[in-house]
Amino acid sequence: MLSPDLKNALPTTDELACSDDTPVDNEDQNFLPNILLFLLNSIWANRMDWYFGVDMGIYHTTGVNSRVPVVPDAFLSVGVERKKGGKSRKSYAVWEENGIVPIFIFEMVSHTPGGEYDEKLDIYRKLGVLYYVIYNPEFWRRDQHQPFEVYKLIDGNYQSQIGEPYLMPEVGLGIGRHQAVIGGIQQEFLCWYDQQGNRYFTDAEQAQQERQRAEQLAQYLRSLGVDPNNLPSN
């Protein structure tokens, strides 16, 4: 916990840069984290104690300079306001969030390595991020790692975890890979799971399931000689 004097000496997020003007390496680095965000908006729609940031700077005091952020592809903090002071965040400064660091950070490895397995891993370790997920679907052989890796901070060091989907009891969610058609294209993406290992469906998948159930009901009614389009009203 920072002392009041030190906290007052630190810059506010209004004073800190909210963008480094560096474009993401590929479209999936923007698209895939946003799928996790959109799913979480549905899963935790009634909760106001969390924040999920995508390609946003995290400012902290565990590095050399508190004005230099680390910018993960995505992160999740629990125990903070959805809207800080009723406003959208420009960046995430740990000292403005009651010292709450993200509990989960996601990095996707791209064509240009970004220190996901060493430099950033060490930053997140010092910061105290409990879960660090590295997704490397294309270049895992080059990097001599697995396509999907979960690290948990245990006794001050990250330890590789096994199991997929991997359940995170402290978060109340699991995470893993799934193949599905999104926007008419078959592709792999990451998704959330409940603590029993059941995958949370996207809004599009839920709508498709409802249509399928409606069609099955209509077929059943027709088998009984009932016109589903001409049902008597109560």
Largest sheet: 6 strands, mixed
Task: Output the helix-strand order.
Answer: HHEEEEEHEHEEEEEH
Structural category: alpha+beta
| Count of distinct strands | 11
Walk me through this protein's architecture.
By secondary structure, the protein is an alpha+beta fold. Helices cover 24% and strands 24% of the residues. The chain has 5 helices and 11 strands; from the N terminus they run H-H-E-E-E-E-E-H-E-H-E-E-E-E-E-H. It has helices at residues 4-9, 28-43, 119-127, 140-143, 203-223; strands at residues 50-54, 58-59, 74-78, 92-93, 104-108, 131-135, 148-154, 157-160, 166-168, 173-182, 185-193. The protein has a 6-stranded mixed sheet with strand order 1-3-5-6-7-8. The protein has a 3-stranded antiparallel sheet with strand order 9-10-11. It has a two-stranded parallel ribbon with strand order 2-4. The longest helix has 21 residues, at 203-223. The protein starts with a helix and ends in an 11-residue tail after the last helix. The mean pLDDT is 86.
Brief overview, please?
The protein has five helices and eleven strands; from the N terminus they run ααβββββαβαβββββα.
Note the topology.
Blueprint: H1 4-9, H2 28-43, E1 50-54, E2 58-59, E3 74-78, E4 92-93, E5 104-108, H3 119-127, E6 131-135, H4 140-143, E7 148-154, E8 157-160, E9 166-168, E10 173-182, E11 185-193, H5 203-223
Parallel strand pairs: 2-4, 5-6
Antiparallel strand pairs: 1-3, 3-5, 6-7, 7-8, 9-10, 10-11
Question: Which characteristics define this entry?
Answer:
234 residues, alpha+beta, 6-stranded mixed sheet, globular
